[in-house]
Design a protein that fits this description.
It is built from 7 helices and 5 strands; from the N terminus they run ββααβααααβαβ. By secondary structure, it is mainly α. Among the domains are: about 65-115, no CATH class; about 145-205, no CATH class. The chain is globular. The N and C termini lie far apart (about 50 Å). Bound molecules: zinc ion. The site of zinc ion has 9 residues, from helix 7.
Length: about 200
């Protein structure tokens, strides 16, 4: 085990940087990701959970997201408690119910919302959530690179690119990006953020 960081998919649109890993762990991670890549992100991510638990590996891009957005999430919950008159006098049971609502509202208030259970990511650094973010980001990055590579030489038949938002609810950041049309030369780096639910689509002339 080394302290050095190692990068998964270097040079791609969304490299993922890992700590607490060595070459063998990285190799195993790529193998698990590749084996599961047609099974859907959730199934693909499952075998990674054990690897995360065994090695204590950390992903910089996920840590960065937690560092920036967890305080906003917690502040929002505090704000909601303070603005709810009944909070202090509520029974334990009502507090539990209110807190569930506050957590949901706090997640929805964020402008970048990755596809995982954010409550569990923020509150427990949940390994299922971390594994899902790794699988989704890795696979979406690879799929997008492949699509763009295959389109090389066909630029003239493409009218424009656009961001397709997911029915599960895009985040405000992605919604804003989806309002625009993009040419081959001004494509945003896709996926737009860790665990992005959106897809890059092209429209032919
Ligand atoms: Zn988004």
């Amino acid at each position: 085990m080394t302290d050095a960081k190692m990068v998964l998919n270097p040079g791609s649109n969304f490299p993922l940087t890992f700590y607490n890993v060595d070459k063998n762990i990285m190799r195993k991670m790529v193998m698990l990701l590749e084996e599961g890549k047609n099974k859907g992100y959730r199934a693909q991510s499952r075998p990674l959970v054990g690897l995360i638990a065994e090695t204590g590996l950390r992903c910089k891009e996920i840590d960065d997201y937690i560092l920036e957005f967890k305080p906003r999430y917690l502040n929002k919950i505090e704000e909601l408690k303070n603005s709810t008159e009944d909070w202090n006098t509520a029974s334990e049971r009502d507090k539990k119910r209110l807190l569930r609502e506050f957590r949901e509202e706090a997640v929805e208030s964020l402008d970048i919302i990755p596809a995982c259970n954010l409550e569990r990511l923020f509150e427990d650094e949940d390994k299922d959530a971390i594994a899902l973010l790794i699988a989704a980001t890795y696979t979406k990055t690879a799929d997008t690179s492949r699509m763009l590579r295959e389109l090389k030489g066909f630029e003239s038949i493409i009218k424009h690119f656009e961001i397709g938002t997911s029915a599960d609810g895009p985040c405000p950041h992605c919604e804003q990006m989806a309002e625009k049309k993009y040419s081959f030369n001004d494509l945003p780096k896709f996926p737009l953020h860790i665990g992005c639910r959106c897809s890059l689509q092209y429209i032919c002339k």
